[in-house]
Amino acid sequence: MSTDLIILILVVVTxxxxxxxxxxxxxxxxxxxxxxxxxxxxxxxxxxSAVLNLLGAFLSVEVATTITKDVLKIQTSDGALVSxxxxxxxxxxxxxxxxxGILWNLLTWLFGLPSSSSHALFGxxxxxxxxxxxxxGVNWHGIGQKVxxxxxxxxxxxxxxxxxxxxxxxxxxxxxxxxKRSHGFRWxxxxxxxxxSLAHGTGDAQKTMGVIALALIAHGxxxxxxxxxxxxxxxxxxxxxxxIALGTYLGGWRVIRTLGKGLVEIESPxxxxxxxxxxxxxLTSSHFGMALSTTHVATGSILGSGVGKPGAQVRWGVAGxxxxxxxxxxxxxxxVGALCFFIADTVGGLAGAVVIFAILLGLSGxxxxxxxxxxxxxxxxxxxxxxESNSVVPTTDAKDTTPEVTR
Length: 407
What we know:
Layout lengths: L2 H35 L4 H15 L5 H9 L16 H24 L6 H16 L7 H33 L5 H42 L4 H7 L3 H17 L2 H10 L5 H20 L6 H15 L7 H32 L1 H25 L34
Helix pairs in contact: 1-2, 1-4, 1-7, 1-9, 1-10, 1-11, 1-12, 1-14, 2-7, 2-9, 3-7, 4-5, 4-7, 4-13, 4-14, 5-13, 6-11, 6-12, 7-9, 7-11, 11-12, 13-14
């Protein structure tokens, strides 16, 4: 087996690993509010979300095409790699970018911080691209149009829509008893949360599909022209769909807890409004090939539902820490991506790929072990939020506040 092929296999495996972390990191975007209100039991919620993520991955490939063309410029118009970049370096570039995305995903998961998996991936790829090629290797126009502008606008748009929807719901149902209103909207949440999961699979699984396609382009096994003519190879779609579904099923409980309990003490009408807003925006962006962050959309929707409900308490301190995390995502993942490329390129060839793969495994294992020391899972994800510590990890005396009628 040639060195090029072994490196390509490592890149594909790592890309599927990123897809897996994307799944469990972003489960909360779809299911956090349904779990928090008791519309769905935690394990049922993540299982339903996994199935719908799997199905959603087959609905569109517009975002995948965006990844192959609008982030990095590693291929000329005639299908050759750009000057100064050989196949090994191109694959190491993509490999390093994936490592930057995965490590940021795991770090933010450890702290229960709902950051953007999409932006972690883009940051890693941009950093590695700058290290390998320089500024000419990054498609700045594509990033601005398809990544940065949606990143800034989407949480505000989602928040406004969710706030209006929430206010209308409470106004229309003002004469209805709280128990009847909650019961009815919990059923509605099942439908809207399912739609968000379907939308998430449609958007986020495609990002990994695009990265694998990019690696195949670097290897010389695929060209952008063949993608335009024949679409993505079917095996890429299947493996990415399965990886994100598996990650979703395991459930990123630490992030689910922050979104469901840390931002707003959410009720089922708010949850339904937030989920409906998120689904509409994510599906629309996927249709136009915009690599939108589902985390930004879901967080904006949840905050908007708090603003729209009369008398609701919004924990702006928690929201502020999340925004700081969002601002750090692109540069932090980019720095890791650049460092990994320098290490791999310095060592050279297959040995360089093996070294950065070992770094990925070591740091991932360390963060997993740290998380197990203060575990958050389906048993304690709904415990009361600790106002004093603002910690994602429940205290020993915290109680589960899931409504009794749904348990």
